[in-house]
Amino acid sequence: MDETFERIRSEHRRVLERAAGLEAMLPGGGARHVGAAETTALLEALALFQGQFVTHVAAEDGALFPALVEALPETRQTVVPLQAEHAELRDMLARLTATLAEPARADRDEQIAVQLRDFIDLLRIHLRKEEALVIRVAEQLLRPREVQALAERMSQGPRPERGGAPA
What we know:
It is built from five helices and no strands. It has one domain: nmb1532 protein domain like (Four Helix Bundle (Hemerythrin (Met), subunit A)), CATH 1.20.120.520. By secondary structure, it is an all-alpha fold. Helix 1 packs antiparallel against helix 2 and helix 2 runs antiparallel to helix 3. 81% of the residues lie in helices and 0% in strands.
């Protein structure tokens, strides 16, 4: 049981480390040009985040959050905003990927910096909330079969009805 929650925490730490790496790629106020090499590096980094949406976030939305709300209905007030943040983070990734596909120009570079900063900031806030408001509570409330279902879901990735990779 502890292994599943430690895995969640470990994945959160890895995501935060990747976010710190992305910060190093941030163009400084539009002054740094985002050329082909930087665009490729950013796209590769964003693909890692998208992979987290396919497995980790899908498991939270499809198994952890519903089990927590079933065990303690009052947690719905916490879970619903976290699910909305998952959707917003997916949208932010999609917008950032689309911006990176645009032809290089100064205003594009500025938009990349703004979008990347916003994504990293929301991601950090979101993960802190999950750790404080969901993971600790879930460890105390969920039954072993619910934790096992969560572990299985985290291992298998998305279900077809969830639409596969994030938009």
